[in-house]
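Input (6,7-dimethyl-8-ribityllumazine synthase):
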Amino acid sequence: MEPISQLEGSFVDVDGRYVIVVGRFNHHVVDSLVEGAVDILVRHGVDAENIDIVHVPGAWELPLAVKQVLKVARPEAVIALGAVIRGGTPHFEYVAGGCNAALGNLQLEFETPIANGVLTVNSIEQAIERSGTKAGNKGAEAAMAAMEMVSLMRQLGGGAEEEA
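Output:
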């Protein structure tokens, strides 16, 4: 029996251009996500000069900005960060669902990794827990996913670097 071929991304040689697109709404939580993402990228060898941060009003506006970044900047990966906190109306479902679906579609359309670090939580306490306290930092986790996918896409012969 032939051995099964396996590929997976790593965190070595992941330098390149990364763009973090950030929804400012709930900035008291989101600012910590950005700090976590930048810290992880730099710790893994991404030159700070190759990290751009784009601010938009909130999670709803993330997909449009991400699309423009993909068209114009052609980064190795985009990291989308924001926080949607459930309230007493259905607004949460529309914003969170629309944002997540659009980001997924853009990733496929542009064949470029988009790490989704948009928190969708029931309370401010949950948001705080996921932005650097007891549940870790989801911004840092999104940056890790972005780097791993950049590495994997390079192995598979795809990504922004190959098309330039």
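The beta strands are 18-23, 51-56, 77-85, 114-121, 131-133, 136-137.
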